[in-house]
């Protein structure tokens, strides 16, 4: 736990609550905070909560119904709640560790404390690759949305390039405080787009329960009057009466099950970004306040959206899920979702670029001053991150496969194992070892072992699914012009 009396005092003098810079304030990460440069310490606890939610609600929520299809709705909900609990604990450890070790800016600093230089290299590399891949997934999601709303008006490769350019430009805004308003807008849009088809599905289900003998065509009249959509998922057969084929519990293969679980991990894998968010808070001691709001809202929406969309669509749920409600709903949903997907992608580029930027300039005056070196390095970092993400998005243009692979290979080691190590690092030498201490040691060992299992098993499962997808359909070609919004 955090001991305020014995904590490092290097962050006591912080920017005032209205955002004004306190001349001479010193930050353990950014150095001297002056009026000559950006005010990095200018994010309030509510803004932090929104940024936390935006690092999580975005791409992952769109694949939760597909994960439920693989597992069945009851096992899917149980797995989702378990992962929510573990990652919430991991996030709490991030906040308390940051207060104990003010100089920590990224998970590579944790690696250095735990394992020295090799730990810094491994976790630092994994951090960069993780967010670069996630940003690539975001660009791919944006291209799907643009194809959906435009009826594939141009080559998909062009849409991916547009996603890269816009995300790079907005992601190059200097501080999280200045882009928090984009996170507010993006969060509203992605939730609206996700809940839109869910709300329509819930209307259909409500009528079905109230009038179980009603002709489904009468049910669709109600929905049509309200929104003008069909009474079945877009991919469902059109020549039969539609009955949702959801499964209470499924019997998936190991490959399908582990890939679905890693998809759920992906939905909660904003944890490594929380170090950066805590570093730019006006008052890091309010971190847990932001965390509680974030995890409560995220879990509630994930459960509502995942269960309702899967109940309605069954095995015909699309990936991303916004394509499941038919052509009209698909366009409206993606129209709302695009700002949300853009906000997520630019945030991923910003966080990764900021990490590289701080590592390159840390300890020099250029970090917190608007010099030519400051701007060249900053723009170079965000452009480089965006460019690599663009290449990944173009080279692996299969949304669900990319999400599961990234979630397995990089998401679990960013959200599970290091946090178990962090608690042990701070508490192993405790002189008084109570029953609680032994239980926490057992819990940390479980988290580390579970994370390692998911990383190895999930990576294997995802690779097998990608190979299977390409064997069955040939997959999608790199830099393809084909419409990727029809899956």
Automatic annotation (TrEMBL):
Topology of this chain in the membrane: Multi-pass membrane protein
Native organism: Penicillium argentinense
Higher taxonomy: Eukaryota, Fungi, Dikarya, Ascomycota, Pezizomycotina
Any one GO CC term of the record: membrane
Keywords (A to Z) from UniProt: Membrane, Transmembrane, Transmembrane helix
Membrane-spanning intervals of the chain: 43-64, 70-89, 110-133, 153-170, 182-205, 257-278, 290-312, 332-351, 372-396, 402-425, 437-460
Top-level taxon: Eukaryota
Family annotation (InterPro entries): AA_transpt_TM
GO MF term list: L-amino acid transmembrane transporter activity
Domain Amino acid transporter transmembrane: 43-463
Subcellular localization(s) per the UniProt record: Membrane
Recorded family membership: Belongs to the amino acid/polyamine transporter 2 family.
Name of this protein: Amino acid transporter transmembrane domain-containing protein
């Amino acid at each position: 736990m955090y001991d305020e009396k014995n904590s490092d005092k290097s962050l006591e003098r912080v920017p005032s609550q209205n955002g004004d810079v306190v001349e001479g304030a010193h930050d353990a990460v950014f150095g001297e905070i002056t009026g000559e440069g950006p005010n990095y310490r200018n994010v309030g606890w509510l803004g932090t909560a929104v940024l936390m939610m935006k690092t999580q609600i975005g791409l992952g929520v769109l694949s939760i119904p597909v994960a439920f299809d693989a597992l069945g709705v009851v096992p899917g909900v149980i797995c989702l709640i378990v992962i929510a609990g573990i990652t919430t604990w991991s996030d709490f450890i991030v906040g308390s560790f940051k207060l104990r070790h003010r100089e920590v800016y990224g998970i590579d600093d944790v690696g250095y404390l735990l394992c020295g230089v090799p730990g810094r290299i491994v976790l630092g590399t994994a951090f960069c690759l993780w967010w670069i891949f996630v940003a690539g997934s975001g660009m791919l999601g944006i291209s799907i949305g643009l194809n959906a709303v435009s009826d594939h008006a141009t080559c998909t490769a062009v849409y991916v390039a547009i996603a890269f350019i816009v995300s790079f430009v907005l992601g190059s805004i200097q501080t999280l405080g200045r882009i928090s308003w984009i996170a507010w807008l993006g969060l509203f849009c992605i939730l609206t787009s996700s809940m839109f088809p869910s709300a329509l599905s819930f209307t259909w289900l409500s009528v079905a329960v109230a009038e179980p003998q009603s002709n489904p065509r009468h049910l669709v009249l109600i929905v049509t009057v309200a929104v003008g959509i069909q009474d079945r998922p877009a991919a469902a057969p059109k020549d039969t009466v539609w009955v949702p084929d959801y499964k209470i519990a499924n019997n998936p293969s190991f490959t399908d099950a582990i890939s679905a679980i890693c998809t759920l991990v992906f939905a909660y894998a904003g944890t490594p970004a929380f170090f950066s968010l805590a570093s730019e808070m006006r008052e890091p001691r309010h971190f847990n306040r932001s965390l509680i709001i974030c995890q409560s809202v995220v879990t509630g929406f994930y459960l509502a959206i995942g269960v309702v969309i899967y109940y309605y669509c069954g095995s015909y749920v699309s990936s991303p899920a916004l394509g499941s409600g038919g052509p009209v709903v698909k366009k409206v949903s993606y129209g709302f979702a695009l700002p949300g997907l853009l906000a997520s992608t630019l945030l991923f580029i910003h966080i990764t670029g900021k990490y590289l930027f701080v590592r390159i300039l840390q300890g020099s005056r250029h970090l917190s001053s608007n010099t030519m070196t400051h701007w060249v390095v900053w723009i170079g970092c965000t452009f480089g991150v965006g460019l690599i993400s663009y290449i990944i998005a173009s080279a692996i243009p299969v949304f669900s496969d990319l999400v599961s692979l990234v979630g397995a290979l990089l998401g679990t080691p960013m959200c599970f194992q290091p946090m178990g190590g962090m608690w042990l690092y701070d508490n192993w030498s405790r002189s008084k070892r109570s029953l609680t201490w032994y239980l926490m040691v057992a819990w940390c060992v479980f988290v580390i072992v579970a994370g390692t299992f998911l990383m190895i098993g999930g990576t294997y499962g995802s690779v097998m699914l990608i190979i299977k997808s390409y064997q069955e359909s040939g997959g999608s070609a790199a830099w393809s012009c084909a419409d990727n919004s029809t899956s």
